[in-house]
């Protein structure tokens, strides 16, 4: 246990130092976990901030659900700048080239075409690059940033897309097959991260599901507080997993290390199948 007392923690993100940031969404606050473990209030009003991620230049990008905007704190603090508006984003990833991908779920559950993946380019232009998932939620990129991963909360699938030079997506496919409770029809998949070996970590209702490059779940790490909502690697060596779960934050030291999306792309070794 790192922190408790929130209503619904989400939006795990780490900066280049390994400091970790998270949101308590209903209370509209953002907190920072320093490298010495000290936790301070970072933003007194996050506008119901949800998913967030750091950019290559150190800016903190966030889905501000309360105002239906994507905002950024250019130097990681100070006044927020509007990046995009007109939709309520859930989670996002910022690539090394500055492209931002944002999920917009079908919030009211009326039609899957309302569930979208948006691309926001460095020039602030925005476009929809995918529709059709039941509830587009967690999003991240492969370590070499050639693939985009998006999980569908209301299924047991994480989808894979090939990122094109212009930022658009092609060759969409169901790739990672997640586990779910016998009594459920969905995995509850949420936030995701990758490590330097190409493994994908998915926050789900069963715990943290760890998948190999071939799309198989290798293990499920249970958590003390039930369903996991988000994950990030943090700490000075990026080898500590931080998760948000219900109203708390937990951490666990691991042998793996992060492949941060804001960093230069890397090509992991081929898996041992």
TrEMBL record:
The active site is at 190 (proton donor/acceptor). InterPro entries: 6-blade_b-propeller_TolB-like (IPR011042), SGL (IPR013658), SMP-30 (IPR005511), SMP-30/CGR1_Lactonase (IPR051262). Binds 1 divalent metal cation per subunit. Its cofactor is Zn(2+). One of its GO terms (molecular function) is hydrolase activity. Transmembrane segments: none annotated. SUPFAM superfamilies: Calcium-dependent phosphotriesterase (SSF63829). Keywords: Hydrolase, Metal-binding, Zinc. The keyword Plastid does not apply. A divalent metal cation binds at residues 137, 190. Residues 10-246 form the SMP-30/Gluconolactonase/LRE-like region domain. This is SMP-30/Gluconolaconase/LRE domain protein. It comes from Chthoniobacter flavus Ellin428. The lineage of its organism: Bacteria, Pseudomonadati, Verrucomicrobiota, Spartobacteria, Chthoniobacterales.
């Amino acid at each position: 246990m790192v922190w408790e007392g929130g209503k619904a923690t989400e939006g795990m993100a780490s900066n280049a130092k390994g400091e970790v940031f998270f949101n308590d969404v209903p209370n509209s606050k953002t907190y920072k976990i320093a490298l010495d473990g000290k936790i301070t209030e970072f933003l007194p009003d996050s506008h119901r901030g949800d998913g967030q991620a750091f950019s290559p230049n150190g800016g903190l990008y966030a889905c501000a659900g309360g105002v239906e905007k994507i905002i950024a704190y250019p130097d990681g603090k100070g006044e927020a700048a509007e990046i995009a508006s007109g939709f309520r984003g859930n989670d996002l990833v910022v690539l090394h080239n500055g492209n931002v991908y944002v999920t917009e779920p079908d919030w009211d559950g009326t039609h899957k075409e309302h569930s979208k993946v948006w691309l926001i380019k460095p020039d602030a232009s925005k476009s929809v690059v995918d529709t059709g998932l039941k509830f587009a939620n967690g999003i991240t990129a492969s370590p070499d940033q050639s693939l985009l991963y998006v999980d569908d909360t209301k299924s047991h699938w994480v989808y894979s897309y090939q990122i094109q030079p212009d930022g658009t997506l092609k060759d969409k496919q169901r790739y990672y097959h997640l586990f779910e409770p016998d009594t459920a029809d969905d995995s509850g998949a949420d936030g995701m991260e990758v490590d330097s070996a190409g493994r994908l970590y998915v926050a789900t209702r069963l715990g943290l599901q760890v998948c190999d490059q071939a799309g198989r779940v290798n293990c499920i790490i249970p958590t003390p507080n039930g369903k996991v909502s988000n994950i990030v690697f943090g700490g000075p060596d990026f080898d500590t997993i931080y998760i948000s779960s219900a109203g708390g934050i937990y951490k666990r030291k691991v042998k793996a290390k992060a492949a941060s999306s804001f960093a230069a792309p890397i090509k992991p070794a081929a898996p041992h199948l």
